[in-house]
Amino acid sequence: MRAGVSVFTDGTNGMKHLRTLEDLSVDDVHAVLDLAHELKTRTKAGTREPRLAGRVLSQVFEKPSLRTRASFEAAIGQLGGTPIFYPGKDAGLGGRESLADVARVLSSYSDAVVLRTFSQQLVVDFAEHASCPVVNGLSDDRHPCQALTDVLTMQEVFGRDLTGKTLVYVGDGNNVAASLAVVAGMLGFRLVLLGPSSHHLPGEFVSKVTSTYPNAVVEQTEDPAEALADADVVYTDVWASMGQEAEKAAREKVFSPFQVNADLMAKAPGTCRFMHDLPARRGLEVTDDVMDGEQSIVFQQAENRMHLAKGLLVWLIESSV
Length: 321
Ligand code: CP
Ligand code: NVA
Fold this sequence. Notes:
Helix content is 41%, strand content 13%. By secondary structure, the protein is α/β, with parallel strands linked by helices. The two termini are 35 Å apart.
């Protein structure tokens, strides 16, 4: 399924989840972001409050991860709780027992569960049977924790109100692009997807975002000059996502005209920042000089995965008590 298709799912068993960003209201998003900023400030000042002492965070991943797994483990550790990690098959997602039974058992030991999956539906089905909050730590369709981190980082640069800002996402209309489109709609900044039209986000998904969030502006184009003229942020992601390894060579051909390099950055205002969710394939979607250049805020963004995870866990767990 292409990114963004299986969206706007219904409510659950009364429990708060983050299966997609649409599980949160705009006020919820601000609450999580404000908490993450507050906890980051206190952490930087040397304070480590055991606000989730005795709590357990379980993570079950079907795909590799550096940032998501490590940032959630660091987050629960800094907050005084305990992490449990399972590769998906070991936890029983490979058919050892039913998904509903895995969800019932694991959630009974946990105060929150983070899942990294291929299928978005697996996240939805797990949440239906879980007795604790379930967080999507990336599926083929969505990456909500990344998008929340990205707006946390943009707020640090531009201030809390992102209205009127323009984020130009360059490349594939994938899970990261879909979550960015939703959070842009929620917070009222403009999202321009610059890439080959064959890999734009589905029109049905974009229409749903723009009809759901009154301030949403989501545009898609193949024209770099048009896209980049008013960019406050240029953002890119890998051309072949996890699970698309067989398409790598074909995708490199399609996306190479959209590499983020000095020429592309020169089409944007000089004040524009560069973001990437990482891991980056240096020399493919982005060149070293842009990754390591003055406009890049990619490592601030990566660090913020942990601060966002702390805000999200505190918000989800404390409001589920
Ligand atoms: N950005 C991100 O989710 O990184 P990982 O795949 O390393 O978790
Ligand atoms: N779109 C990428 C994001 C990695 C964090 C993927 O799904 O592999």
